[in-house]
Amino acid sequence: MTAGAATINVGLNARSRLMLWLVGLTLATSSIVLVEPAPYDVLVIALFGGLLVTGLRFPREMRVAALALGLFATGNVIGAAASADPLSTIRSLSIRLYMPLAWCMFVGVIASSPATVMRAIWQGYQVAAIVAVTWAVAEYYGFIDLGDLNAGLRAKGPFKDANVFAPFLVPVAIFALAQLAGPRSWSAKLWYGAVFIWLAFGILLSFSRGAWLNFVVASALFSVLALVSLPTYRAKLSWLLLNVLVVLAAVGVLAALTTTSNVASRLADRAVLTQKYDLQLGGRFYTQKQAIQKIAETPQGIGPGRSDEEFGLEPHNLFLHVFVEGGWLAGCGMLIFIALSLYRSLALFNWRSPLQAEFLVVIACVIGVLTQSLFIDSTHWRHLWLLLAMLWGLIAAHRHDATTG
User: Fold this and answer.
1) For residue 260, what pLDDT is reported?
2) What is the predicted pLDDT for the residue at 6?
3) What is the DSSP annotation of 79-135?
4) What single DSSP character describes residue 381?
């Protein structure tokens, strides 16, 4: 970590409580996204401005990654300027400039004091996720009526889309699962077990096939990584037994839900690999084919936010999405950024630190959401950029440990 970053650790002593409270508050509002800019966005911008004024510094480990994101942002600006309707790109372009800046802020804040900031993030995120599921379940079962015509079909809570609501819950569910392995009291383990089941319930009621895939990949990957990292055979056996209990509890909840005809019919309808609209002319896979052709024909991109107008449907693939709208420059910048993030993470698997448990949760969730991103446009997902910031904050912390230890 740079000398500047080390300076933050000293500076944080005077303002740490306020900063941590603001970080927690920001994350606690992150599930309220019915309007844009969302409260989370306003708080992130205000927090970023305040931290810059009071001496926020960035670790040198993020420089190449930030350069790659600079290519991503530049490509989107060029695509917007060269598009057939530049004014229609303003909203999406502003989001694609804002998200990398939010990433920079969170990396700098986490690198300044990794353990305390990560704790504040998870506490706030946990509040947001529990509120989101409680809202979604209450609306799904008709306890509250907000005039949503889709209520009772797919749970989405304070989100505009069930396909964003459910993936948002996955990281907190995996974090709760991780707490079951630690040396915590039984009351704490019961709490985190209940949180895990409650969030899994919310993910199920979203009837989002992509989110289900995300959840399964992240849960399975974390369970395997945690098993490998445990130091004794007794600890490994206990973790395996705990996983069996979690699976049995999940099966029990699923069995109870299927006794409700509405849920059972929705599960039968959604629990298939492909839907009719995936395969039909003008559907998901047809649009992806069209997007690939457009990428070859339009190196500068069609402009942020113009896929729906161009094809009649979004490409439903993060990697196609950034290439077709931001052009080759933006697409290559994003690919470099993601590849570098995963590559730099490899060293942390052998990290002997209490923060390694945090890393295992984050890397499992990053891979889970990237897997889902093969089937959905996650370019604007706030929690994806947050996870990547958490990953880079931990990369910087690991580097600092390696150089000072």
Assistant:
1) 67
2) 39
3) HHHHSS-GGGGHHHHHHHHHHHHHHHHHHHHHHHSHHHHHHHHHHHHHHHHHHHHHH
4) -
Three-state DSSP string of 222-269? HHHHHHHHCCCHHHHHHHHHHHHHHHHHHHHHHHHHCCCHHHHHHHHH
Instruction: Find out whether 5 and 63 touch, Cβ atoms under 8 Å.
Output: no
> What is residue 10's predicted lDDT score, i.e. its pLDDT?
38
Side chain identity at residue 170, one-letter code: V
User: Where do the domains of the chain lie?
Assistant: 3-404
Q: What is the pTM of this model?
A: 0.91
What six digits make up the tokens of 154? 């797919």
Q: ∠ CA 80-81-84 to the nearest 5 degrees?
A: 80
Helix axes 318-345, 382-404, angle to 10 degrees: 20
Q: How far apart are CA 254 and CA 155, in angstroms?
A: 16
Structure tokens at 299: 């190196």
CA distances from 201 to 13, 90, 144, 207 (A): 40, 37, 18, 10
Q: Which residues in the chain show pLDDT less than 50?
A: 1-12
Helix count and strand count (H, E) for the chain: 16, 0
Q: How far apart are CA 143 and CA 134, in angstroms?
A: 11
